[in-house]
């Protein structure tokens, strides 16, 4: 079992990943890299969902189950 402090740190890390991905999107759009921008938007949301799953103790090893 992960400690509360480690869980908090991991949640903060995933939120930072999400924010970084989202910040990259505008630069990608401005440079006409729309497919890559969509990918970064997806991963920004995915990292946020991982943070939420950690916060609410939802555990899965499946990418699609987490998204579902």
Structure summary:
With 68 residues, this protein is mostly helical. The protein is built from three helices and no strands.
Task: Give the helices and strands, then pairings.
Layout lengths: L3 H27 L3 H22 L7 H5 L1
Helix pairs in contact: 1-2
* Helix content estimate: over 70%
Structural class: mainly alpha
Query: In percent, how much strand structure appears in the residues?
Result: under 5%
Separate helix tally: 3
Oligomeric composition of the shown chains: single chain
The largest β sheet comes out as: none
Features:
single chain, 68 residues, mainly alpha, 3 helices, elongated
Description:
This protein has one domain (4-67). It is built from three helices and no strands. It has helices at 4-30, 34-55, 63-67. Helix 1 (4-30) packs antiparallel against helix 2. The longest helix has 27 residues, at 4-30. It is elongated and about 45 Å long. The relative contact order is 0.15.
């Amino acid at each position: 079992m992960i400690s509360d402090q480690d869980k908090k740190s991991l949640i903060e890390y995933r939120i930072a990943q999400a924010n970084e991905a989202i910040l990259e999107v505008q630069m990608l759009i401005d440079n006409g890299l729309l497919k890559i921008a969509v990918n970064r938007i997806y991963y920004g949301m995915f990292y946020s969902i991982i943070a939420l799953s950690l916060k609410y103790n939802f555990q899965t090893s499946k990418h699609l189950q987490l998204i579902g």
